[in-house]
Design brief:
The chain has 1209 residues and is an alpha+beta fold. The protein has 42 helices and 38 strands.
């Protein structure tokens, strides 16, 4: 595609209608399309279409025996409520779109900068961005305020990473600078690839000044990025609006329906088929009856105004009449009640104070009311990492210096204390350049610094010198560090507070204020980081003229490069590292080496020669780095806490016990994601294996996936220690959360490039099969669209309920794709929240959302539906039995007012109370026993079988309701000898029996009684009898004589003992079988819920002491923070001076860049490799040196199993 710049003197222009504008749209409707599209979506519900069909039938007088308004009013009410809810949701989407489209941007028009709304920016426009501004569209960077056309961007909205990334303009365009005249005359033309969703790739060419200049992703600023540490920059719009890479990765807003909604569609079709069968049976009966009996009957009893001579046509009309009469099997009031219950459940979520985050003043919010019961059926959770599982905040927590741990607090008796917010902090007020947000609690480290301990000062000197941080001092003493990774920022900040303040740098010097004294070091070389080296070093010369190498990196790499004299300190530091790792901290080893001047000068000469080579340059540089980084002296180690969101580990463990599979989909580096997974206990050292899929071709990925699958299926796992422990404690009530969580000992880690191949049609089945065999799945470096593709794959092939949770714009696509989308109000904006179905402030609230609100919503909705179908089958099928005794004339048993009021008044509130307030177990036990969540995943509480059973119970009840009163009253007489078998007395008897049976049944179905339940059940009975006597009273007959002609029927019937005996007998016969079946089932085949309810009841009586979570130790390996968060290439920028300002030309550096030697497969290193090497040097075996053996320590949490079970299921 060709995109000429919109300069004043351009020779080639694009017509306005052909140039894409920057307008975005995430809403579904507009004012014209709302009504047709919304009605189309609503009539996808088979029930709505079914009621519309019935309404049409009721408009035909020859067919209908009921008034049309009995259907149209409730149908219109349901459609209106749903439409208002959908319109409200879409209004907020429109509001969000308008807010984004109305942002202001400076556009170069008519030779000057003008303020324009984002929506009016078009392809080819040149716009100006300033520091901390969002990028309005996908731009080709033309020039910037930084040297060499550099600019720094933060891409959190795209990939979740908050570390800065470098973009650089072409040299030929960077010369344009901020000259508006030159920029206005810019008439370059860009030929590039069409719009796509690949965030890390771009191919194009700039045609300008008779030259062709290649363009790649490093020249582009993508929409959603934030300009950082750059005063200004200019760019030309390449892609705008929906064609930008960010919007290409956003999925479409779809209409979400629950599995119960889909099941209801099927059941409505079944019921309609059942009604057709009953209608056909009764129509045939009518035809036969009309032909054989009807003529004589009409002559004697009921002459017709217009006689139908055709018995077949009479049967045809009767068929449709019965369809209308029997349609109350699925009354429209069911859907009104469902919407009310869902709305109530949504308010319960909004009102839950335990899901309220006081620090951010953020409550939980149910942004939709249609998915609540789906929260109780989730099988797969797809989670973002940054901002969701972690706070993306690195904190200098502990360190080990010269064999001593700092960072722990002890009381006067030498007992270790737990650090809390109330623990006193070290006073750094002596340091005017301190970072006031820094917190450290061990005063002994500051005392060691003041006592001039050489190792401590050298430790912090290393942290202040060995890094690629850029300082920015806007005001005197107000330092801001621009770090490419939060790990480096945390370490430099720690050195700053302890008196070693990194203040300034040039390509050849580093200035550090050491305890208030300015010291300038000559920067001789930077040995840059890459993923193979997993370390970086600097070589500096101090003011005394001594050259020294400072190195920091992964301990597994660094410990193999130490001098022999450091062996004793190495073992001690190793024990400390194991302890740090056991607490989930990210570790880093530090070492230095004093350099001989002659050796250094010779090495430096060889380095300059290697930097000038074209072939094998990387290999030679790596060899030179290895030569320099050896025989180092160990200083100690650092421990950084990558702060997880509160309760993440416990939440993941609890959800895992609920048989929910959690997959992490992140744009972060593989090493970072793996490290966080260890911190969250999603990855564990006692897993059998972590499979890393990193192939670069389809064949490589296929082979790696096949190998992993075969290894999992082919391995014969031997009983583990935890299995033995479970056997020994088979009768214990407490089961370990993590012992349950690691029942499958495999994990799968796959990167974005490999995932792209694995998601192809030929491999997606293999990918899914392998992933589902693993306990943990982590997808790294994935694009937003790939996140959505993974979710869609599981939805389509597993037919499981999926939930996606994230906090950034890069998560919007998977949030929209999943059955349920959850947005976290985090630090990456509100895009995820606006696209979500539910939102809250922290990941830990997901546990309560699913295990309490979700499980209760599913349980209540299933009980509600089972009871509603039972009630209406019992109510409606009485007409079917009566048809055989009324000449198949479509005459109703009940009074028409009873038919109208039964579902609206007499039985509506008790079932609503059950649907809103019922609970099988309380909230504490819902979380304590996660296995209670499984019935929802297996769809056990309401399915086709349960529907058949409750329908069968309803049919049995209707049979009993009709034939017991019919048989008992057939020859019955009143006390005065009069007959009691008139139709109205019969109808009153059946109606009263039905209301009482329905009330008793809902009492049996209610598990949790509240004052509201009592009030609604007893109140409904009272209302029934009040209305019944009122409708048969003299007063209402006097007002409406034609509507209420049967005076005194209720009083006459219900004053007879025989009628009450019939009602009692009917009630007992209807309810007794249900009681027997439920008792035997709970006693002989108790479910997990039955066991917990029994235990809960016993606990209330005994008031047992609540046991909290108890902690035990678990194994964990050391993980390097530095190697996992850092990026390659910043060393070259610093030493070349291209990222610094100078009054004159930038000084030359003697160090060239290092780059990754090529494609490589990431491999997990054994944390004991350096120990084995050390022991080999000593001539010892691993088993003979317990002192150097890792002490394998971190924590587990225990929770309680299902009471009554010897093993948790």
């Amino acid at each position: 595609q060709n995109f000429p710049a919109k300069g004043e003197n351009q020779g080639k222009r694009i017509l306005k209608k052909d140039r894409e504008d920057n307008h975005i749209k995430t809403s579904k409707y507009n004012i014209f399309t709302f009504l047709p599209i919304n009605l189309f979506e609503q009539f996808q519900r088979v029930a709505n279409a079914y009621f519309l069909f019935l309404l049409i039938l009721q408009l035909i007088p020859q067919v209908s025996s009921l008034s049309w308004f009995t259907t149209i009013v409730p149908l219109a009410l349901v459609l209106t409520i749903t439409a208002v809810k959908d319109a409200t949701d879409d209004y907020f989407r429109h509001k969000s779109d308008q807010q984004v489209n109305s942002r202001q941007s400076q556009v170069l028009l008519s030779g000057r900068l003008q303020s324009e709304q984002w929506m009016n920016v078009r392809v080819g426009d040149i716009i100006k961005l300033e520091n901390n501004q969002f990028v309005a569209a996908d731009l080709l960077l033309l020039s910037s305020s930084e040297p060499y056309g550099l600019s720094y961007v933060e891409t959190a909205e795209l990939d979740g990473e908050t570390n800065l990334k470098v973009r650089q303009a072409l040299t030929v365009t960077s010369e344009l600078g901020a000259d508006i005249h030159k920029l206005a005359e810019f008439d370059g033309e860009v030929v590039c690839e069409p719009p796509n969703n690949k965030l890390d790739r771009f191919t194009g060419t700039l045609l300008w000044k008779d030259g062709k200049f290649p363009l790649d992703n490093g020249k582009l600023l993508l929409r959603g990025c934030v300009l950082r540490n750059t005063e200004w920059c200019f760019g030309m719009v390449i892609f705008a609006g929906l064609e930008t890479k960010l919007m290409q990765n956003c999925g479409r807003t779809t209409f979400k329906r629950t599995s119960i909604d889909r099941l209801m569609n099927t059941l409505v079709l079944w019921i309609f088929g059942f009604l057709m069968c009953m209608g056909i049976i009764l129509a045939i009966g009518n035809s036969v009856w009309e032909k054989s009996v009807g003529g004589n009957f009409r002559k004697l009893y009921l002459p017709w105004d217009e006689v139908l001579s055709d018995a077949f046509f009479s049967g045809f009309l009767t068929f449709w009449s019965y369809i209308i009469i029997l349609n109350t099997v699925v009354p429209i009031s069911l859907y009104v009640s469902v919407e009310v219950i869902r709305l109530g459940h949504s308010y319960f979520i909004n009102w839950d104070r335990r899901m309220y985050q006081a620090q951010r003043d953020t409550p939980a919010e149910a942004r939709t009311t249609t998915l609540n019961e789906e929260l109780g059926q989730v099988e797969y959770i797809f989670s973002d990492k940054t901002g969701t599982l972690t706070q993306n905040i690195m904190v200098f927590s502990k360190c080990s210096i010269n064999g001593k741990i700092y960072g722990e607090v002890y009381d006067e008796f030498g007992h270790k204390l737990e650090i809390t917010e109330k623990t006193p902090c070290v006073d750094f007020s002596f340091n005017p350049l301190r970072d006031r947000r820094f917190r450290f609690h061990d005063h002994s480290l500051l005392e060691a610094m003041k006592l001039d301990e050489t190792a401590v000062r050298e430790f912090f000197r290393l942290l202040a010198l060995c890094h690629t941080v850029m300082p920015e001092e806007k005001m005197e003493g107000e330092l801001v560090y621009q770090a490419q990774s939060p790990d480096e920022g945390a370490l430099v900040t720690a050195a700053r507070n302890f008196g070693f303040v990194f203040r300034a740098r040039t390509p050849e010097t580093i200035t550090v204020y050491e305890l208030g004294k300015a010291v300038t070091y000559q920067l001789l070389a930077i040995l840059d980081f890459n993923n193979v080296r997993k370390r970086m070093s600097v070589i500096v010369r101090n003011p005394q003229g001594r050259a020294r190498l400072y190195c920091k990196g992964a301990d597994t790499i660094l410990f193999d490069r130490l001098e022999p004299a450091s062996e004793e300190l190495l073992c001690t530091t190793s024990e400390h590292l194991n302890e740090f790792a056991g607490e989930g901290l990210r570790t880093l080893a530090l070492a230095y080496r004093d350099l001989d001047e002659d050796f250094f000068q010779g090495w430096m000469q060889r380095l300059r020669e290697a930097c000038s080579l074209v072939e094998k340059r990387e290999d030679l540089l790596a060899s030179l780095y290895e030569e320099m980084e050896r025989e180092m002296t160990l200083l100690g180690a650092t421990a950084i806490e990558d702060k997880l969101e509160q309760g993440v580990a416990e939440t993941i463990a609890c959800l895992t016990l609920a048989s929910i599979k959690i997959w992490v989909l992140t744009g972060d580096k593989m090493e970072t994601a793996i490290n966080i997974a260890y911190s969250c206990n999603m990855l564990r050292d006692d897993m059998n294996e972590v499979f890393v899929i990193s192939g670069h071709s389809v064949l490589e990925v296929q082979q790696q996936l096949k190998s992993a699958k075969e290894q999992i299926l082919g391995s014969n796992r031997e009983p583990s220690v935890s299995d033995c422990a479970d056997t020994e404690k088979s009768d214990a009530k407490l089961d370990s959360v993590f012992e349950e969580a690691i029942s499958v000992e495999y994990a799968l880690v796959i990167n974005g490039h490999s995932l792209a191949h694995a998601l192809e049609a030929d491999l997606e089945g293999l990918l899914l099969d392998t992933a589902c065999l693993c306990r943990t799945v982590i997808c790294c470096r994935v694009t937003p669209l790939q996140k959505a593709q993974v979710v869609e794959l599981v939805k389509r092939r597993r037919r499981a309920v999926t939930l996606a949770i994230g906090d950034g714009a890069n998560d919007v696509s998977m949030i929209k794709t999943a059955h349920i989308g959850v947005g976290i109000s985090g630090q990456e904006g509100m895009q995820a929240v606006l696209a979500s179905d539910y939102s809250f402030a922290q990941f830990r609230h997901l546990q309560r959302l699913l295990l309490v609100h979700g499980r209760w919503s599913y349980f209540r909705m299933c009980n509600f539906l089972c009871y509603f179908f039972y009630k209406n089958f019992a109510f409606t099928l009485v007409h079917f039995w009566f048809g055989f005794f009324c000449g198949f004339s479509a005459q109703t048993v009940y009074d028409q007012w009873f038919i109208t009021l039964f579902n609206i008044v007499y039985t509506s509130l008790p079932v609503l109370a059950m649907g809103l307030f019922d609970q099988d177990v309380n909230e504490k036990n819902s979380i304590r026993f996660p296995k209670l969540y499984e019935p929802g995943q297996l769809n056990l509480l309401f399915n086709k079988r349960q529907f058949f059973l409750c329908s069968l119970q309803g049919a049995y009840t209707s049979f009993t309701l009709f034939f017991i009163p019919y048989g008992a009253l057939y020859h019955g007489v009143r006390d005065d000898g009069a007959n009691v078998t008139d139709q109205q007395s019969f109808a009153v008897t059946i109606a009263t029996s039905l209301v009482i049976v329905a009330s008793v049944q809902i009492g049996l179905d209610t598990n949790y009684w509240t004052a509201i339940n009592h009030f609604y059940i007893w109140g409904s009975l009272a209302v029934y009898f009040s209305i019944l006597f009122a409708m048969h009273s003299n007063g209402i007959f006097g007002i409406f004589p034609s509507q209420f002609p049967f005076i005194g029927t209720a009083r006459s019937s219900l004053s007879q003992p025989v009628v009450w005996l019939v009602i009692l007998l009917t009630t007992v016969v209807c309810v007794a079988p249900v009681l027997v079946v439920r008792f035997l089932r709970a006693d002989l085949y108790p479910t997990q819920t039955d066991k917990v309810r029994r235990w809960q009841l016993a606990s209330r009586r005994q008031h047992p002491h609540e046991q909290g979570l108890r902690r035990v130790r678990r194994t964990s390996s050391r993980r390097s923070a530095y190697a996992f968060a850092h990026q390659e290439g910043y060393g070259e920028l610093i030493t070349s001076g291209r990222n610094m300002r100078f009054t004159g030309p930038a000084p030359e550096s003697g160090l060239g860049s290092t780059s990754d030697p090529g494609p490589h497969t990431w491999k997990m290193h054994s944390s004991s490799s350096w120990i084995e090497n050390l022991l080999k040097k000593r001539g010892l075996t691993t088993g003979s040196s317990p002192k150097c053996r890792p002490d394998n320590s971190t924590e587990r949490w225990h929770t309680e199993g299902i009471p009554g079970d010897q093993h948790t299921d």
